[in-house]
Fold these 3 entries.
Entry 1:
Amino acid sequence: MNTINYRKYWCIIIALTSIVALAFQGSRGLWEPDEGRYVRCAYEMLKSGDWITPRLNGSPHFAKPPLTYWLIASGMSLLGANEWGARFFHAIFFILTTLATGYVAARMWNQTVGLLSSLVFSTMAFTSVAANIATTDMILTFFITGAMVCLWMSTSCSDRIYPRNFLWWSLMCLFIGLGFLTKGPPGLLPLPVTIAYLVLSEKAQKPSAAVIVAGCGLFCAVAFPWYLVVIQHNDGLLSYFISEEIVGRIITGQHTRNAGFWGAFKIYPHTLLLGSLPWSCFLFIWMWKTKQCIWAMQWWKRVRSRDNKLFILLWFMVPLLILTISNSRLPLYVLPLFVPFALAIARILAVHYSEKVSTLFALRGKPAVLVVLLIGIVVGSRGLSAYFEPKMDSRAIWKKISVIIKERIGDSPYNLSVVGLQLHGIAFYSGKMINTFEIKKSQGHSFSRKINIVQEMDNLLLQPEVQVLLTRRKFITSIITQFREKGIRYEIQEGPYDYTLIFCRPVLPENAVKLRAPSNNDNL
């Protein structure tokens, strides 16, 4: 292929990636709990005009820094308060990550590997799905990828090109700062990779002390101002950040996200191996054919002298080790690791399947047909998702429960509360402020305090609106037992999926103490 052909192929890659990223972005509703929470916070930020303090149903919500909320809110301001607007910038960051993956591969090897890397990353099962999920993870993946690209470029510069080395190092620190403003400590994942690479590499150009100091200053200027402002204006927030968002997530596992020794093994292996399909098949075949070589100690000793292999290996293994040690684990946490995975697979394809790659670039034969078919499957599966209404789809949930509420109370005003679960997307679709309560006793830090529903019902019943509680069927016995102990009258209505609605009529203050415990005949 000549230079002109490369330009043509890059245009094709950009077009295909854009199709994968943008097609059917608004076809399905918001998934709970994460999409519903992020989009609701961003929507309240957009409506209130307060872009400093994230709020969830009117209450300050500092579980994550604001950059993701800013992007979601910006998307909704451009395209409207809908799923398209909420996910727009996630699609853009997916495209940017794909191009950054191809760019670093082209600089490490050649344009062929660069094109393959972009193609592999954009059509992996997991990455294409993640492009359609409005959380922090795709945004963080781009910033981590950007930081790693800059690290490679800065360490591969010669000593004679000092300004260029300084520029790449500064950009790396900028990306790390933006990552920290996206998700907090996980945004720092490029730092241990950087340290390990500079220590182990025999060829990498080390930055000078002046370059490091300047980069650290740029990081602080980007990452810390928001934290300083909100900590200054919210008493106890620093304690919350340390106890809940750092210690609670990394060490204690109090957020119950696959904590414990085996938690990582339940989440990460199959996410990485199945999520990288169909391309990971080529990696497994290569590993099987070269098993004697890669398991030999000599192969690993030579890695230090081969910067590109060492770089990719550290890019993948160091963050994976840190994520494994952490006591908070979810599948999307390893999304940034699919970039080095794609680089390794693309290099294997270019070296060991060169004839098939040439056929692919000629846009003919089985390889080209299979790639087109793969893209069709990726895009088509997203379109089909609109016709499925899983119990985590808040749009589908609201569509069904709104009909039930209308049938039960007509046009009477009501307050909607969610008990024992997180369904913040319902607030987005209903336009209502949704109260969230727990079944157990009130507990937690003041910025993440969980209020018991029974403790709050006395106040709710004094309001003129009907109180509608949405909960899971399995929680009903516990809730009504507490209601009976307090003499709270209620009516039960089966809802969609495994949800149940509880209706409580308002009472006058003078009659509040006269409520009787309902009999079984009261339940509808």
Note: Residues 83-108 form the longest helix (26 residues).
Entry 2:
Amino acid sequence: MHAYKLSPAVDNIHPDLPLHEALALQEALALHEALALHEALALHEALALQEAIALHEALPLQEALALQEALALQEAIALHCRRHWHYVRLSHCMRH
């Protein structure tokens, strides 16, 4: 055990390390934790921004979906009418 205050992770994993190496390891671990925290916060901010953008785009998307649905309905009606018209023409031709 070192007389200097080391984190339990460093002291328990490497109790025989010289003090300067143990301190360097502890500093590296602290830096790694700080970077991980920074990345986690950055990810959290990115997700919040992504959610805000999605919310902002939700209304235009809803409008686009409604337009797409209306166009699909219009196409279905046109297809129905073409089939009906073809049937009417065919039945008319069969009469003659």
Note: The chain has one domain: 8-95.
Entry 3:
Amino acid sequence: MDLQRFNQQAGQPPCAYPVSWQVNGVTLDARKTVTFRQNDRGQLTPLP
């Protein structure tokens, strides 16, 4: 998943999530701002 493209389509600022969802098994919700690093396999890894 291209996170920037997803955010543009959703009309959300980068790293802002309107609902809870999962990326690579990590649950995100609207109360948290999560920064991602993309590895060489295209996987998104949440940074602490």
Note: The longest strand covers residues 35-38.
